[in-house]
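Async update (no meeting this week)

Hi team, since we skipped the sync, here's where things stand on the single-chain job. The sequence we agreed to prioritize is pasted below, unchanged from the tracker. I ran it this morning and attached the output directly underneath so nobody has to dig for it. Comments welcome in thread, and please keep replies under the output.
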Amino acid sequence: MAPQQQLTMRDECELEWFFSAGQVAFERSTFGATLERAELFSVAQLYHSEMRPVHDAYGRMIGYERAITARPTAETRAQSGYVPDSDVLQRYAHMSALLKRVEALSRTASCVMALLYGDLGQRWAPEAPHGRLGALYHLTAKGQQLIKDDARKTKQNGAAIDLTAPARMWNIAGAKQPNAERAQALSYCATQAKALELDARAVWFSVKQRNSARAAA
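Output:
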């Protein structure tokens, strides 16, 4: 299958969904735990303490002790947390299975897909002339060279800024007036990033083809 084949709009929409809303829906979150903890403390406030007399074996009062009792309440509380519906579960499971097969064939392709259609790819998408490919620039040989050069210049200028590779590449590509040398370097980045995308795309179509054949069997 030709690696130049384009992803369908449906594939792109599903990949964008999986790496954004889909993963958010199934990621471990502290929000539910926070609600549970808040409910626990609200219930604890229903308790109050009172002093009651303590007697010995002969019935003589020998002191007092603090007793904890609960005030009854008729209030019912709904279970906190988010439970995805069956359609979301099936959608996520389908995409997860496909991407696991992509990773089994090529971890590089899996990483490329996540970058292109995840948050970083979404950020780069409207940025002309780079588009989504900008999300891959820091993986390319030319991009890594640019990042090292930029980090060295930053250090020489005395700036105490430690940026991640994607963030530094974003700054490099976003320079308002890049010189001819940098513009040429970014062009090389785009060419190398395109090669990564084509390889990942070929793996994706291979997985889709196998999945279709399995479903038809």
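Quick observations from my side:
The chain has two domains: 9-27+84-216, 30-81.
The radius of gyration is 29 Å.
Reply here if anything looks off.
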